[in-house]
Amino acid sequence: MPIGDKVLSNFRQQKEEEKVYAAQKIKVGIIGTGWIAEEHVESYLRQPDVEIVALADLVEGKASKFAKHYGLTGARLYPNHKAMLESEALDAVSVCTYNVTHAECAIEALNAGVHVLLEKPMCVTLDEAIAMMRAEKKSGKILSVGFQPRMDENMGMIKKIVESGTLGEVYYIQTGGGRRRGIPSSTFIEKKTAGIGALGDIGCYSLDMVLNAIGYPKPLTVTGYTSSFFGTSPEYQEPEDASRFDVDDFAAAFIRLEGGIVLDFRIAWAMHVDTPGDTIILGKKAALRIPSTECWNGTIGGPMKLYTDVAGEQVETIIPAIESKGPGLFDRKIRSFLDAIITGGAAPVPTSQIVYNQAILEGIARSAALGREVEITVPEV
């Protein structure tokens, strides 16, 4: 087929697909209209097969202002997620509330027969994670956790390298990251809304990068440490924020995983250094160094480096960073969720994996509070 004819054919096919999308809109509701909801709505508006039909927020007037800003003139507004779920025939919801309400909103949406895209972290406690998984299993609906870094080509490359056997048996991982200065405000810095601080905000991403690469083995024990020297100090915070800050702004842990793997982890919203170190995956045949980023932005901080021996000589191989093309990571997250709904496929980021991520986060916080190592037991669902 000549190139011109092929282009015309592809254009016609795209238009036909858009007609199908228009006839079969996925009806979406947004629970919580804070800043992260902006990313969800902007991405949904770029999808041809989505109609945002409802918004819910506890703060009076907030959903109305949000709807006006995005031109969602047809979206109905609700004072809470329960009222929305009772009144609307929804296909899916995005849960964009603060951390301590993630479980409640997700469970009630699943019980109402609605697919759920849940913002990270999954929740605050392991018990909440298990309750969500049980609701998911009972409902037969999708519950996907919003870890868009999974969609980055470089994250995929890390997983490919590990699965290829190039590293051999992995026995030790060092990972983490964070910001020299980067403490958020709003609901992020109080236990009554966030539950946990830097651990849940960016620590979950760092853990997912390496745990996903090695197949998410079960965590067994953890020795954790947390601190909040910067968040509680008026020297680094606005006085009103420092006075209410009661979560972690730094965390570190030593985690033992099934299969004899040890995970050395640290994460920070603030510290007196630009990075706590690169991610390193040590295998018995080779090792991989993954450059850190200034702020956890969903990709890697530059070319990776593979260390191995060839013919008795120590060799270093540069693995160039892959430049992302096409839709952004957030759009990929949204699209993969929608495609799973359409095809009846599995959740793009399944709870069966992220429950271990959540167990580690809770284990770190629990160990830090007790001042000793703790065991991690994840119940079967």
Level-2 CATH architecture of the largest domain: 2-Layer Sandwich
Largest sheet features: 9 strands, mixed
Roughly what is the average pLDDT, rounded to an integer?
A: 94
User: How many whole angstroms does the radius of gyration measure?
Assistant: 22 Å
- Helical fraction: 25-40%
Number of self-contained structural domains: 2
Unreliable runs: 17-22
Please name the fourth-level CATH homologous superfamily of the largest domain.
Dihydrodipicolinate Reductase, domain 2
* N-to-C CA distance: 53 Å
Strand content: 15-25%
Please tally the β strands and state the result. Answer: 15
Number of helices: 11
Structural class: alpha/beta
What's the SSE pattern?
HEHEHEHEHEHEHEHEHEEEEEEHHE
Principal-axes geometry comes out as globular
Can you walk me through this structure?
- This protein is α/β, with parallel strands linked by helices and 381 residues long.
- It folds into two domains: 3-148 and 331-349, Rossmann fold, CATH 3.40.50.720; 150-322 and 356-375, Dihydrodipicolinate Reductase, domain 2 (2-Layer Sandwich).
- It is built from eleven helices and 15 strands.
- The protein has helices at 3-23, 35-45, 62-70, 81-87, 102-111, 126-139, 153-163, 198-213, 239-244, 329-343, 351-370, and strands at 26-31, 50-56, 76-78, 92-95, 115-119, 143-146, 170-178, 219-227, 250-257, 261-268, 279-283, 286-290, 304-310, 313-319, 374-375.
- The protein has a nine-stranded mixed β-sheet, with helices on one face.
- Strand 4 (92-95), helix 5 (102-111) and strand 5 (115-119) form a beta-alpha-beta unit.
